[in-house]
# Entry
Amino acid sequence: MSEAYDFIVVGAGISGSAAAYQLARQGHKVVVIDRFAPAAMASGWTLAGVRQSGRHPAELPLARAAVELWTTLEEELGAPTHYTRKGNLRLARNEEEYEHIRRMVEEQSADGLDLSFLPDNATLRAMAPALSPAILGASFCPTDGHADPHATVGAFVAAAERAGASFRNHERVTAILVEGGRVMGVATDKDNYSAPRVILAAGLFGCELLGPLGLDVPIDVRMVTVIRSVPVERVLDQVIGVAAGNWAGRQEVNGRFRVTSGGQAWHKRMDINGGERSPRPAVHPPMATLGEVVAEMERLLPGTTAHAVEEVWAGLIDMTPDALPVLDTAPAIEGLVIAMGFSGHGFCLGPITGQILAALALGDETGFDLSAFAATRFNSRPDLPQEAMTLHG
Ligand SMILES: Cc1cc2nc3c(=O)[nH]c(=O)nc-3n(C[C@H](O)[C@H](O)[C@H](O)COP(=O)(O)OP(=O)(O)OC[C@H]3O[C@@H](n4cnc5c(N)ncnc54)[C@H](O)[C@@H]3O)c2cc1C
# Structure
């Protein structure tokens, strides 16, 4: 058994690296182990919208708290996140979407979110002139925005390291070690590590480590296609999505468009080029979906598809049946904390997820009602229908 730690974090995505930062800055001895490297999976594949609008009521308090943290995150971490707060527009392409958005604005405004309804195309295009004259209206949340995912995770990792946390990349956790109902550490493909507390933030692979412990979080993996252009002249400040959740996009601070499809079934292929030493696993998107994403971009942002493509990839999303994450201590296993199933919403939440996971691992109050995120909530409801994916940036 190698060195003993106070906490082991499995996974260096935004959730794990933010949790490690919180624990290390409080003086705890932390190691983060990642099968690939920081932001190798969802936290790098992401659109990286930082959004409160359109959130489930149970998730909204977390998203609002996260947005507060995003405001000063760069100063706190001492490195750029490229966080930009210029709003989120959810576009209505037809009467049905128009009604859906109008109702959402009513409901979420009643919950205290600063969200307005732009009732016609002229009002919308006064704010975002590059959008199509065919769009009927939109919701607008001025306090939503976006950030750079690799920069943000890198900033959490660097701040955690400065506070004393260690990171082990290209090392796969193969088992969470439990004895007499208590966590003892983890086994990896290279070594064993001991710690009384483990935070599991391994994204869609979390189930592989929970299964042998007799725990299960039902996860439906959805695949989303992402296209990134070369840097081009800025025409769009806001993150844009559509009411049906089947297209979203933004222009990064460097001018690149980053646009996504809706979710589709995963073809179950993941290319781990250089084995576990690969910087990140690649999932290749179907050509037909690339065509659909481009066609929708041309409908929403006419003229922008003439730009050159720099990169395409597919990202995988860990959907739970109710599209809410599990943020909880494990039932009947002392010392295990679980963060998974973010269902396409976990990038924005990252900074607050880190605080919540650290508090759960320390046995402190989190300050939030986490009952909607309980690990056991699916046990008595095996036939729960699958909630639709609502990716909106
Ligand atoms: C295309 C796409 C668009 C998205 N758009 C948005 C958006 O606009 N806004 C938003 O808020 N969210 C969005 N999301 C969701 C968001 O990106 C994720 O919810 C979030 O990044 C999850 O972070 P995580 O740290 O929990 O998991 P991940 O980032 O998946 O990190 C898990 C880490 O665990 C490691 N790992 C896995 N298994 C093991 C093991 N056995 N041993 C060691 N390490 C292991 C992996 O290598 C990985 O680095 C999107 C996701 C995708 C794919």
In short: DSSP finds nine helices and 19 strands in the chain. The chain has two domains: 7-66+149-218+321-373, 86-143+220-319.
